Amino acid sequence: MFIQVLGIDLGKSCFHIVARDAAGKTQFKKKLSRTKLCEFLANHPQCTVAFEACGGSHWLARKCMAFDHQPKLIPPQFVKAYLKGNKNDFNDAEAIAETATRPNMHFVPVKSENAQVIAAIHRFRSGYIKERTACMSRIGAVLLEFGMSLPQGHATMKRLFQWLAKQSEPLHPMLPPVSDYLSLLIFIRGIKNECKIHRSI
């Protein structure tokens, strides 16, 4: 029995597999855990392994390549056109296998582990920058409640303590510490340095 393509519907802990031969006929279906999936791929003869490009897909693609399979990552919107019947995990896997055999189909390139690390660091940094902006807004709003109009801009926040020292009225001792902003700024700078390190690898 020659299997041409394995369509896999990815999950966090369970994976649904549909195996098709060269004629497009389904030969078997399996539901496997993450550990069992790796064992299955390691022992399965070389073939095309298709799944949607989503969370965890690039990791699985690299695993497939290590086992001499040909991974194909499919944008999820292209799979919908080949879904038959009610939406469930095995039907999704069937649609993925069908999509992988279509001519002129667009596939997503597999990312290296290093490329994924850099992308993850950028996502973290982007999130912390949003938190920094929100923190600036909170501090400005609180100070305004006590008659202090903090000038807008990141440059002013860098000199926050010096600016506060020049104000005629001191902060109330029960107010939250504005040092939270500076701690966040230091953390963001650390993430930026991590990006530079990984680019050089």
TrEMBL record:
Residues 6-145 form the Transposase IS110-like N-terminal domain. Coiled coil: none annotated. One of its GO terms (molecular function) is DNA binding. Pfam families: DEDD_Tnp_IS110 (PF01548). InterPro entries: Transp_IS110-like_N, Transpos_IS110. GO terms for biological process: DNA transposition. It comes from the Bacteria. PANTHER family: PUTATIVE TRANSPOSASE FOR IS117-RELATED, TRANSPOSASE FOR INSERTION SEQUENCE ELEMENT IS1111A. NCBIfam families: transpos_IS110. This is IS1328 transposase. The lineage of its organism: Bacteria, Pseudomonadati, Pseudomonadota, Gammaproteobacteria, Vibrionales. The gene is TNP.
